[in-house]
Amino acid sequence: MAAPVTAPPPVRHPLRTRPFRLLFAGRVLSLTGDAVIPAALALAVLEATGSTGALALVLTCAMVPKLLLLPVGGVLADRFDARAIALATDLVRCAAQLLVGLQLLGGSPTLWLIAAASAVGGAAGAFAMPTSSPLVRGTVAEAVLHRANAAMGIAAGATRVGGPALAGALVLTVGPGWAFVLDAASFAVSAALLAALRIDRVPVPHRPFLTDLRQGWREVRSRDWYWTSLVAHSAWNGAAAVLMTLGPAIALDRLGGAGAWVLLLQVGAVGLLAGSLLADRLSPSRPVLAANLALASYALPLLLLAAGAPAWAVIGAYGLAQVGLGFLGPLWDTVVQRRIPERVLARVVSYDSLLSFAAMPVGYALAPLAADAWGPGVPLAVAAVLVGGCCLATALVPGVRRVR
Question: What is the pLDDT of residues 312-367, one digit of tens each?
Fold first, then answer.
């Protein structure tokens, strides 16, 4: 007599497993710190110095090391233990935020020390970012990888919603110095959670550093679905920089003032969270194609701003565009983690981040120059055409359509 067929055990949500719970809690704390830092830093530096030039210097010091060191971070995350690197970067960021906090609590902050701490924090971020995908991949089963990435996306969206508000509340209640001290504490707790985590790891043979860098780039170039999508994602980041540069002035001029711009950002953050929740429920048969088409929606708020549309239309379109971004994140991360070999995953992801971040300074620099020459409508319309065209054009790439 044939043996009875037993049904496979039900697949549990990744948050019901201890390793992913530890990772998720630690990443939520780190993401909260990352979301609080820019707003708290802006308020603290402007309060201390009254200079937008000083703020620009501090923000540049945070961005440049991150751009330069991202590929290095990818190599190290592949070559060594991603968990240990993430833990170390949390401790470094804890120390950097604590230094800024103590400077502000002292009552006479030194600008160059704050700038140096921001540079150290930015460098630590370059080493932390490539560890995210290997950590998720090493803590959950293949069957729940998509839900794990959706949970991470939801956490990122939630911190984007609450981070600036939390930063403002801390600065206004306990003061900017204590805001940074508490932020440092969040990184310390995140490091403690990572210390308790154990993950599966694929050993990588040690080779010359440049050889590892070149291998990561070869992995990117060999996949048409990957590098063409990176072009689209880079166009999105450049377009976002144009909107963030020109949008506030347009809001003050004809959308109703600063309140309209704040509302736009908050609606966008809610849209990002909604897109991540949507990605947790949907599994499109062609995930890369669906994600890139959703990302093309960012052209809409750019075109409406360029055309002089009313505030409600621009704000609604921006919220919808951020839904597309939130929808893309978990889908993209899941496909990358499943299709890129674990031994090169961090390096490949670091090139993704590098290309995305590199487009933003270009947008920041060119947008005001073009607006001075031809008015803000021209750079906004050009950015809309670029982001919409690049995202939609990925549908013509055979590899993008084949990824299922």
Answer: 888 899 999 988 888 888 888 888 888 887 777 777 888 887 877 778 777 777 77
Whole-number Å distance between alpha carbons of 117 and 106:
16
Neighbours of 232 (CB within 10 A): 24
Q: Which two tokens stand for residue 148?
A: 């794990």
The two tokens of residue 303 are 């075109």
* List of E strands, 255-342: none
DSSP per position, 3-30: PPPPPPPPPPPGGGSHHHHHHHHHHHHH
pTM for the model: 0.73
Q: Can you state the angle between helices 132-139 and 345-374, rounded to 10 degrees?
A: 140
C-alpha distances in angstroms, 308 versus 81, 301, 314, 379?
Answer: 51, 11, 9, 14
The SS3 call for residue 184 is helix
Longest dimension (CA), the chain: 85
Q: How is 282-301 classified by DSSP, letter by letter? A: ---SSHHHHHHHHHGGGHHH
**CA nearest to 212, candidates 74, 336, 355, 350:** 74
Instruction: Please give the Cα distance from 248 to 257 (Å, whole number).
Output: 9
Instruction: Read off the tokens for 390.
Output: 């690049």
* Residue-range domains of the chain with CATH: 14-195 (1.20.1250.20), 217-402 (1.20.1250.20)
Helix (H) or strand (E) holding 88: helix 82-105
Contact 321, 297 (CB under 8 A): yes
More confident residue, 274 or 34: 274
Task: Give the contacts of 4 (CB within 8 A, at least 6 positions apart).
Answer: none
